[in-house]
Amino acid sequence: MVIGVDMASSPSFQLPHALLGDGPHKVIAVHGWFADRSAFAPVLADLDRASFQYAVVDLRGYGEAKDAAGAWTTSEGAADVVALADLLGWDRFSLIGHSMGGSVAQRVLAIAPHRVRRLVGVSPVPASGLELPPEQWELFAEADRLPGNRRAIIDVTTGGARPAAWLDRMVERSLEVSDAKAFRAWLDSWAGEDFHDRIEGSTVPALAVVGELDPALGAELMRRTWLRWYARAELTELPQAGHYAMDETPLALIRAVEDFLRKDGESDRVSGDSPS
Q: Does residue 121 register a pLDDT over 90?
C-alpha cells in the first residue's frame, strides 16, 4: 500500500509520505541532503512488508514538500517526524535516517526518547554535526547553486568508483527534487549544530551502517561518535558501498537493517528512557 499526503488539502503542514506494508513494527525512513524520499526507491521492492510498515517521508524543501516554508533545520524536521507519527497513530516506532536524515532521526530520539524503538543511521551525520575544513566547506556551501559541486561531493563520497552517467543522474535528481534555498539552510543545521549531549547515554538500540568507500561518514568517525554515545550501539560496514548504500548495495543494506530491526525483545519495547 502506498499513500501520498496532499498538502494543499491539509489544514496544517504534514510531512508528505508513502506507506508501505502493514506489519506490526512501524518504521519511519528519512532521506538525506541530496534527495527526497525517492532516495529509498532502490530498496522498496524488497522490504519485508509483512513484518514492518514503513513510512518514507519528504522533509521540508524536498519532493512533495519542496515548496514548504520552514526553518529547514534538524530540530524542525524531528518535530515534523513526531507529528507524522501522531497522525499515523504510531505511539512507538523505529527510525532509519540516511546522512542528514540520520541527524534528524537522532533529533527525534532527543525530543521523544520514549517513543523510539530502534534507531538506524545509514552513513549518518553524527549528533555533533560535521566539521569541514575551509576548502570542503566552500564546496558544500556553494552546492546549492553549482551542480558541479554536487557531483564532486557524490563522487568523492563514493570513492571515485562510480560511472559518470550515475553521477550525472544523481545530480539531476538532486536538483529536481530540492529547493536551493532550503538545501543551503539544511547544511548549516546538519553540519553546524551539536546536540550530542542530548542523546549521549541513550539505551535505545542504535545501528550505524556505513560504506567502506565513504571517506567522510565512515567506520572511523562512527567509532569516535556513535559507538561512544549510544549504550547499545552497533556498527556494520558494507565493503562495496560508499555514501549511497541504497543505490550501491541495496540488498546488503536491507539485510543489515531489517536483521537489526528484528532484534526486538521485550526489553526494547520498554526502553527509550532519557539519557541520564
A: yes
